[in-house]
């Protein structure tokens, strides 16, 4: 099977040929021989060209998160389109929508809609797990919308602001 | 003070520290009572304690910070002592006083000592009286914006703004220049109000590249006091300690003795009883300045336990029961080297944002010299209401080099799935030459992140390969009609055999 994989912003072509628990994997132009052994539902022990690699796998829609001892990478997978060009995700050109990275409480909104902001400028302060975190603008532009108010409780993924 | 053995201790805390105290009680044959908020019914400290008592809704103000509810729990369960752990009510003099008034033994110093040393500006004045050098700054708390501006100009920038009732890095801000002052003061005061119910602050000159070194002390109610050497706590992020060790790689024997003597002098002068910690900043010239005293057990107490062989929590309980310290200063020594990594539910790849959620799976390290003081388990949902500390991974070795190797080994065995944690970050720090050489100060984490994040070689190809193989296997499993999906391992094995060669 051939996939397009997106790993932390990098696009890769992955081909998997397998027999039982042994796989021949080609990632772009690198080839790996992999022996795969699942240890429970979440852990897998890989022998990659004879080198042992103990990984954790967290299921996610459209892929999974691979947990190494010194890193943690989100992998998105989709079936490769036959003959299709493989490229990275195009950079979003439209307005940036900021959503809550975790559940918490809005302590203070720092800017009004219509304000021109710089990339990295603080838009609002959110409290989660007893710490106040400043939510910053990912880009320069005008604040199109502030979707929350001071004191409001928000869930993960709730829209906070739109900058464009 | 007469000896009065403790029979039943209520632990007014949660998480890993409540677990630690439950364990000490059990080993001393003392009954342990856990308390829990509605968010914590399934927490590990509740599961391990012999008795448990609900104390209200999830927000800590209505549970772990509610003096009335905790005292009511103590009354209902017939506890004769209260151990406050750290954080929450641990340094709240009103709570200690309320315990004293009800005849409950408070496992910590007397309420008036907490008031004296817990309020940071009076502790600074006490230190000056005891001849202990302090960081230049205000000796009185400051309460309004105008006074903050006036004092800031007098002290000069950069400076530190700190909550007068603070601790744990809350209500603390570094202010580089006057332009940042008002916003920082507002943030510090609002955090301080939320965490400690008091928004007064004080100001200190920010030292150039300081190291954060603290001295552990123990004092009994009979006038005996000792220090248990230093802990090195310079590996911090936003004033939250991440990695601690003992001994400190740059504290000389002379400085160690000097800081220990200063600490014992201050303990004796203030009539301090039980375990406590004196925090010092050490400047580039090796001069120590007293910062503040923590009138409680510290998060990082295990590194001291590992090098001294002394169980601090048990001694806290024995001192609270009126016992004398069972050793003298000259009987204490540091043996080998200990390192602790605080395992936090924070995502190092997203600016250390808190990452609450359910722990899907967990494998803890084991083997010689490894200790995991954890408050979580596989299947546990890390609540959003409390701090993100999951566990403290501690190792002990004969030397710092061995402790580092051991920590690397332990980190490679430690897996937590379901929530991002700081574990992978520590694995990278423990390989960083500056950390290994011991040449670091409190700016280390910021500079390590800045120089390594962009440059770091990430295992993208292996991650893609693993994810793709997993996907192939999932699809293969899903192709089987539901009725024939394997239910037993023997059936699954048979199926795998049958499919060999068909992929």
Describe the SSE topology.
The complex is a heterodimer of chains A (164) and B (503).
Chain A: E1 2-7, E2 10-19, E3 22-27, E4 30-39, E5 43-48, E6 51-60, E7 63-67, E8 72-79, E9 96-99, E10 104-109, E11 116-117, E12 122-128, E13 131-136, E14 141-146, E15 153-154, E16 159-163
Antiparallel strand pairs in A: 1-2, 1-8, 2-3, 3-4, 4-5, 5-6, 6-7, 7-8, 9-16, 10-12, 10-15, 11-14, 12-13, 14-16
Chain B: E1 8-11, H1 15-28, E2 31-36, H2 44-48, E3 51-54, H3 67-77, E4 81-83, H4 93-101, E5 105-106, H5 111-118, H6 120-129, H7 145-155, E6 159-167, E7 170-175, H8 178-196, E8 201-205, E9 211-219, E10 225-237, E11 240-246, H9 253-269, E12 274-282, E13 288-294, H10 301-308, H11 312-320, E14 337-344, E15 346-347, E16 353-354, E17 357-358, E18 361-363, E19 370-374, E20 381-382, E21 389-397, H12 400-413, E22 415-417, H13 423-429, H14 433-437, H15 444-452, H16 460-479, H17 489-499
Parallel strand pairs in B: 1-2, 1-4, 2-3, 4-5
Antiparallel strand pairs in B: 6-7, 6-8, 9-10, 9-12, 10-11, 11-14, 12-13, 14-21, 15-16, 17-20, 18-22, 19-21
Strand tally of chain B is 22
Overall helicity of chain A: under 10%
Q: Can you give the mean pLDDT of chain A? A: 86
With helices defined by DSSP (H or I, 4 residues minimum), what is the helix count of chain A? 0
Strand content of chain A: over 45%
CA-based gyration radius of chain B: 24 Å
Biggest interface pair, counts: A-B, 60 and 57 residues
Biggest sheet statistics of chain B: 8 strands, antiparallel
Helix content of chain B: 25-40%
Helical/strand content category of chain B: alpha+beta
- Order the strands across the largest sheet of chain B as they lie in space: 13-12-9-10-11-14-21-19
Report the span from N to C terminus of chain A: 40 Å
- Low-pLDDT ranges of chain B: none
The average pLDDT of chain B is 93
How do the strands of the widest beta sheet of chain A line up side by side? 1-2-3-4-5-6-7-8
Query: Which structural class best describes the helix and strand composition of chain A?
Result: mainly beta
What's the multimeric state? heterodimer
Percent strand of chain B equals: 15-25%
DSSP summary: helix tally of chain B: 17
What can be said about the biggest beta sheet of chain A?
8 strands, antiparallel, barrel
């Amino acid at each position: 099977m051939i996939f397009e994989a997106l790993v932390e912003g990098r696009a890769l072509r992955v081909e998997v040929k397998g027999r039982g628990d042994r796989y021949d994997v080609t990632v772009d132009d690198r080839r790996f021989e992999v022996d795969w052994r699942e240890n429970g539902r979440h852990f897998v022990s890989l022998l990659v060209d004879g080198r042992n690699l103990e990984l954790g796998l967290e299921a996610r829609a459209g892929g999974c998160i691979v947990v190494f001892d010194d890193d943690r990478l989100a992998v998105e997978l989709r079936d490769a389109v036959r003959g299709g060009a493989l490229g990275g995700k195009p950079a979003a050109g439209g307005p940036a929508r900021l959503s809550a990275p975790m559940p918490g409480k809005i302590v203070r909104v720092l800017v009004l809609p219509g304000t021109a902001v710089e990339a990295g400028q603080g838009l609002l302060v959110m409290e989660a797990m007893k710490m106040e975190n400043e939510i910053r603008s990912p880009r320069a532009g005008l604040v199109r919308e502030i979707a929350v108010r001071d004191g409001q409780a928000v869930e993960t993924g709730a829209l906070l602001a739109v900058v464009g | 003070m007469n000896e009065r053995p403790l029979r039943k201790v209520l632990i007014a805390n949660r998480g890993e520290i409540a677990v630690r105290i439950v364990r000490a009680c059990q080993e001393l044959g003392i009954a342990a009572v856990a308390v829990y908020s509605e968010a914590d019914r399934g927490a590990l400290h509740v599961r391990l304690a012999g008795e448990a008592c609900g104390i209200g809704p999830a927000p800590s103000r209505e549970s772990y910070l509610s003096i009335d509810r905790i005292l009511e729990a103590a009354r209902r369960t017939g506890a004769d002592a209260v151990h406050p752990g750290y954080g929450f009510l641990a340094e709240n003099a009103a709570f200690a006083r309320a315990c004293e008034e009800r005849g409950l033994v408070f496992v910590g110093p007397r309420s008036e000592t907490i008031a004296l040393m817990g309020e940071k500006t009076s502790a600074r004045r006490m230190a000056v009286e005891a001849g202990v050098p302090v960081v230049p700054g205000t000796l009185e708390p400051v309460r309004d914006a105008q006074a903050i501006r006036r004092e800031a100009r007098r002290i000069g920038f950069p400076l530190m703004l700190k909550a007068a009732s603070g601790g744990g890095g809350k209500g603390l801000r570094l202010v580089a220049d006057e332009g940042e002052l008002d916003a920082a003061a507002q943030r510090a005061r609002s955090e301080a109000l939320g965490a400690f119910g008091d928004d007064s602050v004080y100001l200190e000159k920010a030292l150039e590249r300081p190291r954060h070194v603290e001295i552990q002390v123990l004092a009994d109610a009979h006038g005996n006091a000792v220090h248990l050497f230093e802990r090195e706590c310079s590996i911090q992020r936003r004033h939250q300690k991440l990695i601690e060790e003992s001994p400190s790689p740059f504290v000389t024997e002379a400085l160690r003795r000097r800081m220990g003597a200063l600490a014992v002098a201050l303990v004796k002068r203030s009539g301090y009883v039980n375990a406590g910690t004196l925090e010092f900043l050490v400047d580039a010239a090796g001069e120590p300045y007293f910062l503040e005293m923590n009138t409680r057990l510290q998060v990082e107490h295990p590194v001291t336990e590992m090098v001294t062989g002394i169980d601090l929590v048990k001694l806290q309980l024995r001192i609270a029961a009126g016992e004398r310290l069972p050793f003298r200063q000259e009987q204490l020594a540091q043996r080998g080297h200990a390192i602790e990594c605080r395992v936090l539910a924070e995502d190092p790849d997203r600016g250390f944002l808190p990452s609450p959620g359910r722990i899907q799976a967990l494998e803890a390290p084991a083997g010689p010299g490894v200790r995991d003081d954890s408050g979580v388990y596989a299947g546990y949902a890390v609540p959003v209401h409390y701090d993100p500390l999951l566990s403290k991974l501690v190792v002990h070795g004969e030397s710092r080099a061995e402790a580092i190797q051991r920590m690397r080994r332990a980190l490679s065995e430690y897996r937590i799935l379901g929530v991002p944690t700081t574990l992978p970050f520590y694995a990278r720090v423990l390989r960083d030459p500056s950390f290994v050489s011991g040449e670091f100060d409190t700016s280390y984490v910021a500079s390590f992140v800045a120089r390594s994040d962009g440059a770091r070689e990430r295992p993208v190809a292996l991650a893609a390969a693993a994810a793709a193989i997993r996907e192939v296997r999932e699809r293969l499993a899903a192709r089987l009609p539901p009725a024939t999906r394997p239910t037993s391992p023997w059936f699954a094995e048979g199926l795998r055999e049958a499919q060999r060669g068909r992929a």
